[in-house]
Amino acid sequence: MPRVLLIEDDPSIREGVGLGLRRRGHEVRAAETGEEGLALMATFHPELVLLDLMLPGINGVQVCHRIRQTSEVPIIMLTARGDDFDIVIGLEAGADDYIVKPARTEVIEARIKAVLRRLSDPVGTRPGIETHGELAIDRAGLTVAKNGERVALAPSEIKLLLHLSASPEQVFSRQQLLEYVWDHSYHADARLVDACVRRLRHKIEDPARSPRYIQTVRGFGYRFGPL
Q1: Does the keyword Phosphoprotein apply (predicted)?
Q2: Mean per-residue pLDDT, 4-20
Q3: Of 58, 64, 112, 67, residue with least CA distance to 88
């Protein structure tokens, strides 16, 4: 079972979630501050991070930014109900998904499996490298390069790009992308798609131009196809 780093300042949530995941076979290390969590990142080498947004000292968004500077480990945010603005900020900082607290352990476990499945179940995996303008997409190796330099992508970003680029010019609704990339079926999570697209564009697009690779279809969704 994957190693999980839990960064949560509420002791009851930290202990309850940690105990529930350990009973399911996970190795769990827990931290109550962002500073402690970042220190554990370097020694524990987790395969997934559960990160509370509202932390004392360095907050969850700042922790997410720092993790993304050196690691592509999947990150699931833990948020309080009603923190919609903070959820969007966290997603744009590089988180792959979010869970509203309080949540049952089985819900957290299901989200963990869904996030990790994106790494083990890439779309359209096959030998060879595809070239789309300045982008080179290696589906088998799950890597992307722009102008010969590798682009660091989080799990949700790589799966979204793989899915869109597998069917150039096909338009996908946000709901379709939610169901395929995130395994979510409810409309409220459309912001997951929009935040991921913004992060992906920042990494693969030329900021001086209009989006070239991931194009918005107003009122519906997105399509891939270099202009």
Answers
A1: yes
A2: 94
A3: 64
